[in-house]
UniProtKB/TrEMBL annotation:
Superkingdom field: Bacteria
Name assigned to this protein: Phosphoglycerol transferase MdoB-like AlkP superfamily enzyme
Organism: Sporosarcina limicola
Binding site for Mn(2+): 254, 298, 472-473
Keyword Transferase: yes
Start and end residues of each Sulfatase N-terminal domain: 246-537
Transmembrane segments: 12-30, 42-61, 70-93, 113-135, 156-174
Signal peptide: none
UniProt xrefs under Pfam families: Sulfatase (PF00884)
Primary location group: membrane
One Gene Ontology term of the molecular function aspect: metal ion binding
Amino acid sequence: MKKVVWPKHSVLIIAIVATWLTTYFGYITSFNMKIDNMMQEFILFLNPLSFLLFVYGFALFMKSTKKRNIYLLTISILTSIVMFSNAVFYRFFNDFITLPVLFQTSNFRDLSSSVTANMHLTDIFFFTDVLIIYFAMRYVSEKEPKVQRGKIGRKLYFVMTAAVMMVNLGLAEMERPQLLTRSFDRELLVKNIGAYNYHVYDLFIQSKSHAQRALADGSELVEVGNYINANYTEPNPDMYGVAKGRNVIIVSLESLQNFVINNEMDGHVITPFLNELTHDKDTFYFNNFYHQTGLGKTSDSEFILENSLHPRNGSAVFFTHSGNTYDSLSERLGENGYFTNVMHANNRSFWNRDIMYNTLGINKFYDVESYEIGEGQAVNWGMKDIPFFEQTVDLMKEMPQPFASRVITLTNHHPFDLDEEDMLIPQYTSNSNTLNKYFQTVRYMDEAVKVFFDDLKEKGLYDNSIIIMYGDHYGISENHNKAMSMYLDKEITPYDNAILQKVPLFVHIPGYGKGKEMDELAGQLDLRPTILHLLGISTKEDMQMGADIFSPDHEPFVIFRDGRFVTDKNVYAQEVCYDNETGEETDSGACEPFIKRTTTELDYSDMIINGDLLRFKEEQTQHPEIKGQQKE
Ligand code: GP9
Ligand code: MN
């Protein structure tokens, strides 16, 4: 075949376009990514481009055609391998590759046995670009340009690359605010920034935490351990072991804040069922309980509950430190004979749950695949809470007992959309559509919890269980202060914003009879020790920062991830000390000692996580008579 004469850099352009299109077709043929609108489709199409322009662009620095050709082919082979491996991996795990998975030996075993089984002949398609580039090199001859504009041309080229990247990130930010800081889900990352950029990002995150881990040593654990021991409080003998041997059901109530409890909206009761529980004799309702989450939202609340440690600042610890050693609630329950599991009808990689649950020693994750979502049973982010709870009870019925299930609801999630038939009360009227709809979805969730209780009773699981329910984090952010101020009929100050971080906590013990409303000031970090003590499992040896809420010595002091805190006397927010009773500014001296303790505790918690310090504890306590022992 005769060589055709094409303009200079034609081969480079062909290479970029060929790999770009191969990647895009790979996306749509081999991965099951949910695309909701034209904009998402466009972002998906655009997203491989910035990375490809960048890496292929280095060819512009190569003087010899031979070297350049080798470089172009190498890049196309590597990108094809990346896409091909992800496709094979996806068939098995329904997820994109992340580095920690490759390093987890148990995964590796699963992987190697299934790699061959999951390779398809059609996967050759992923190498189409290599072939096209090879032919381009053979049959296209490029014109020498009349004017040498090497340097300027290259500069322009990389400016254009950066511009494409900016457009891509800008559109992604519009579709998914805080995508990178919250890093929700690998699927969302790939959809928005592309598979290649995602891998670079993953590499960056994983190597950062690897480096911090490498620098840590066991001596730090001693320092943190001293702090933790000094804060340990003995359990309340009246409560210790009251639910021993029962199934444990922990319900995460999506975005539920405490201000709706025992409250009305335009004359409509918002949470009739939960209100009943607040004065039920089998229930302890905590009305002064705070969430302590950061950007990792639901996943942070799970992290706190499991570990009684603070989450990380500025990123989701489920993503950044899923390879650590933890002393989780689930692991402890597992050691005590419980079948531990999480039930949540979302895709398994959301919040990196599939990986993190493994790390936390959770026996099984009932994800969206375990549920059947019938016609009309999904709204907003996924399965509706009522059918979700119904199927959850059916699944529980099949579990070995005693089980410990964490059940995560979803309907009451921003943007709080509902189908007409599920709207049990009207909307609120204010300038915030979010707050207006919030009351309705909360009302729906309340109904769902009622259905859940009824079903547990009907299926005979109720009497032998303990049910703990908590709000995972706020639903109405400070952006809606104006509407909130209208609803609460008062001006919202930083003090009020802190108080609004209260979420309800219910500890429901069927047949107990001595429950009551509690105003002890407490937070999510207290859940782990409280639950374990109710089950008669000691936490004396554990590296946890919370304390048993029922303990007579429980200290009324709650630290927020962002450095705010609440004590029984004060609230500290935006560097101002407020009186907790009146909400008025007060002398900063009252807050001073707690400011110090807040910084110390948050630092220690970060030290544990960043240095992966609990691995040293594991090493020290290899003796079974010390580790995981039940103390009666
Ligand atoms: C997703 C659900 C919601 O699976 O838990 O997460 P959130 O956005 O609330 O953190
Ligand atoms: Mn949530």
